[in-house]
Design goal:
The chain is of the alpha+beta class. Helices cover 60% and strands 21% of the residues. The radius of gyration is 38 Å and the shape is rod-shaped.
């Protein structure tokens, strides 16, 4: 019995449609998780820990305010914008970096106004600068919360992506085994039916030959 193309395509489509989706989502989540983990989480934690031993100089707040913007859902976002000046080896610098992480806007205004109140305009403050790059300085040392959040969220999404990807591969392998088993079963059934027909044909031929021999024997008698 010959197998039609439809006999193969139908089970294949059923077993590979979802695995392909799993693989796509796994790659997507993996790339996003790796990017957040690698570019935002790890550098923030590494540089945040290093900042705890950075040299300290005296600085002065030039401006301190809360700036607002509109988010994607038209929500008002708040961000503290604090600019300060400092001097290293006789050279003056300006910075608006509060900690080692990039400035982040928030839908809550409370933390932004607290930061502005902590660093009002004209206040003399300690400034911590990167000894390898004096133009980069901050007001607060240590690992920022946003860096920790990016680190763990990025790592979690990366692991989730790997799990989803592996599930997709497993489903494809399992689907291939199911398809192979189905094709082998069809082939075996076809072979068994062919052998059964051959046996029936041979038995019929033997019965016919036996009947003819018996008739010939009666004729001789």
């Amino acid at each position: 019995m010959a197998l039609s193309l439809g006999d193969i395509i139908t089970p294949m489509e059923m077993t590979t449609a979802r695995p392909i989706t799993y693989i796509f989502l796994g790659v997507l989540f993996g790339v996003i998780g790796w990017a957040v983990y690698h570019f935002l989480g790890v550098p923030g934690i590494t540089e945040g820990k290093a900042s705890e031993s950075w040299p300290q100089v005296s600085g002065k707040i030039l401006s301190s305010q809360v700036v607002t913007s509109k988010g994607s859902d038209n929500q008002t976002m708040y961000q503290p914008e604090i600019r300060f000046t400092y001097e290293v080896s006789g050279k003056s610098y300006e910075s608006n970096q509060i900690n080692v992480s990039p400035p982040v806007s928030s839908g809550s205004s409370g933390s932004s106004y607290e930061m502005v109140d902590q660093f009002p305009r004209g206040k003399e403050v300690p400034v911590y600068y990167n000894p390898d790059k004096p133009s980069f300085a901050i007001l607060m040392t240590g690992v920022p919360t946003v860096a920790r959040v990016c680190y763990w969220i990025g790592l979690g999404v990366l692991i989730l992506g790997i799990i989803i990807f592996v599930q997709g591969i497993f489903k494809i392998v399992l689907g291939g085994a199911i398809i192979g088993g189905a094709l082998l079963s069809k082939k075996n059934n076809s072979t068994q039916r062919t052998r059964s027909r051959e046996r029936n044909t041979n038995e019929n031929q033997r019965e016919s030959t036996s009947t003819e021999n018996e008739e010939d024997g009666f004729g001789i008698t």
